[in-house]
């Protein structure tokens, strides 16, 4: 139901392996909150990924880690480790259904309070009644008799979102949504042969959601460029073009690990839990709300004492199953992702670079202070207003150089006038406001005339941050009875 990802740790050697893969994950959900997401845009060709040495480096590291972990799991040390995990997690394991029901109900209460969304901040809706339906879903989880109705409500919200968003975009939220709804149905059932699969269904839902969303890092790496500019600490100094594919491999393989043998899936869950928690502080409470169900299911996987493998157990236990399973998963998911996009939008769909910023009606959000990397509805230098309300320089048919020069001349005059104020504190603020506005004007010209993706992302970041500071300075002036607008 939610896009996933974030990154936190580093340690490149263990980077991709489950426990050590604590570095790159969690940008997908955020990618759609912070960067332009044009559903119709064509993904990068698969050959680009297959020719990337970092992609294959990540694959090799993962295979080594999985084989080593599987060998340990076969030994007495592996059995002892699982037994120790069982003892530590036993109190929660015995009350896991109660835990899951509380979290699911709490999640729907939280998005009811946020308002204006279907199932995640990426899926917005102006329909107020949707929020009240979310509250009813939460109330239905209190009783086992009404849990199937809550499950139906979750599926209904996903179907409802199809009216406003492309089916391909909604696939990001299908697996987890179905898994949570299915869990509620199985948990409320009186048939033991059904109920025993309820946590397994949750595990498959999260695994599929992770593996599917990870492909965005290979199909649309440019979505992640603004996030790297906005929060450079996320990469821990790793070069962008190395970090993004390695992050994709880490996310995909940890999702794959959730479907593996008991020790590997529990280690994968622990690593993912650390990663998602690390995302909360940089991205705020909305991240916690958006990923609450994912994190709860990851906890359920980590404490799950079940050691039986119901599907394809023999291949999942064997060493050859590691490379065979991972290769099969990559082929299946990549074929589905690129194939379905071509089926929905045609093989000749335009790329993000070709669509550029004028296609704002195709994006899931446009520029605002909340979404500083959304596309700005300003395809030329004609002086169209942005959503901030501040006017861009009236460049008309000027060249970029002439537009830059005009914006700087206007900034200089206003700045010098402000600096002449008798009060040095007021003079500082009156001088800084036009200084910041000049930076905003230059950034808008860059967005209208430029083409470099890194500079475009930086320009959008400058607009968002400088506008916030302008508003803070104007508020400071208003407290002293000085109006500047």
From TrEMBL:
Q: Which domain of life is it from?
A: Bacteria
Q: Which residues form the DUF305 domain?
A: 397-477
Entry's transmembrane regions: 53-72, 102-120, 132-160, 167-186, 242-260, 267-283, 289-306, 318-340
**Pfam family membership, one:** DUF305
Ranges for region Disordered: 378-398
Does Glycoprotein show up as a keyword for this record?
A: no
List the keywords (alphabetical). Membrane, Plasmid, Transmembrane, Transmembrane helix
Instruction: Please tell me whether the keyword Cytoplasm is annotated for this protein.
Output: no
User: Under which name does UniProt file this protein?
Assistant: DUF305 domain-containing protein
